[in-house]
């Protein structure tokens, strides 16, 4: 289901002047343990592996027992999700781990350190007159809120000073963000730092005020990814920073689980709201013009100014970045959306390492979905997939033998390959193929199922090794606007 209208980007830009973007900011804290109904095993945060909180995943527990008994190779037998769960429960940060082997190495390091735990609960307040759930929520908020940021974008305008004109710094938008790591990187929405400008121009100055610091600090823009509505800043002054928010996972979220949000709605900083995961897998139109896939829908109250703030689970772990609300009126109606943290990790790590997102590509351009539907009507049969329009010279697609559609001398179209699957996942339209490729890395090999000449009787499987668009640009000297997938 795609929402294309009446989205208010939480651009945190309830700006000067008023903007059509609606800022969001969410913050949350809780340390409640997983419920018995969940289908995976969590181990005690105390680092005691002797007593699993849940034991429904026998294979996982057996692997873990093997690790306990000294069979260290069993680390590699765990899935990426299982590795993350153990690291999370031990309080070990893994946000900078790009590959599975990095997670395995981080887990081995934690084993050698005796389960070290930087994920300690804050000192409990007096529980007199409070429910246990309230005490957990209070502790979580106190632990996480210092890392949530109020972000203000400013610009310089000429101001009259007697007979002279002098530059004066004025605010143009506000939003939320949060500290990503101990190196001073701060994550927020792209539409926050661009102050809702459609041209995407970045302001001269971005000021970041962390709740745990007394004064706002200047920050530089490290990089942005408009299509995912994400931006990474870096504080110039990185002294005395609070601990970053613990990072969770989003691939194992469940509809109905509790979530927390902290942000600066309408300029009211350090605001905590609570709700649940209302739905998963939503497609939300981003400021870059393309939908952001797999967004989390929540009923936690988020409003203008919440954009870029963290969405967290009940234990205060980051599960998403608030980005938009569905609102005919412009205010909160209980339908908000967050970019899933698995996507955030991938994008943020690339921006930190390379200054931009390095997108992999097959080296093809594809026919617009509407044209494919028209071809389907002319053929009188179903044509479901991505039709190859052209193959970039010297690209992986050319090496693997993918065939493009061609225009004959009499004006008729000779149909080329129709991509119907990638790595066993169905491809029904362009976004299916684009999203699947974007989730991969340079050098990864993908298996495509193609119908030669769009003929169901000529199905073949083709293996393609991905490269980057920048490399193909350099080889072919083609502009960045080439519609490659």
TrEMBL record:
<keyword id="KW-0720">Serine protease</keyword>
<dbReference type="Pfam" id="PF13365">
    <property type="entry name" value="Trypsin_2"/>
</dbReference>
<keyword id="KW-0378">Hydrolase</keyword>
<feature type="domain" description="PDZ">
    <location>
        <begin position="351"/>
        <end position="454"/>
    </location>
</feature>
<keyword id="KW-0645">Protease</keyword>
<comment type="similarity">
    <text>Belongs to the peptidase S1C family.</text>
</comment>
<dbReference type="InterPro" id="IPR051201">
    <property type="entry name" value="Chloro_Bact_Ser_Proteases"/>
</dbReference>
<keyword id="KW-0732">Signal</keyword>
<dbReference type="GO" id="GO:0008236">
    <property type="term" value="F:serine-type peptidase activity"/>
</dbReference>
<dbReference type="Pfam" id="PF10208">
    <property type="entry name" value="ARMET_C"/>
</dbReference>
<dbReference type="GO" id="GO:0006508">
    <property type="term" value="P:proteolysis"/>
</dbReference>
<dbReference type="InterPro" id="IPR001478">
    <property type="entry name" value="PDZ"/>
</dbReference>
<dbReference type="InterPro" id="IPR019345">
    <property type="entry name" value="ARMET_C"/>
</dbReference>
<dbReference type="Pfam" id="PF13180">
    <property type="entry name" value="PDZ_2"/>
</dbReference>
<protein>
    <submittedName>
        <fullName>Peptidase S1 and S6 chymotrypsin/Hap family protein</fullName>
    </submittedName>
</protein>
<feature type="signal peptide">
    <location>
        <begin position="1"/>
        <end position="18"/>
    </location>
</feature>
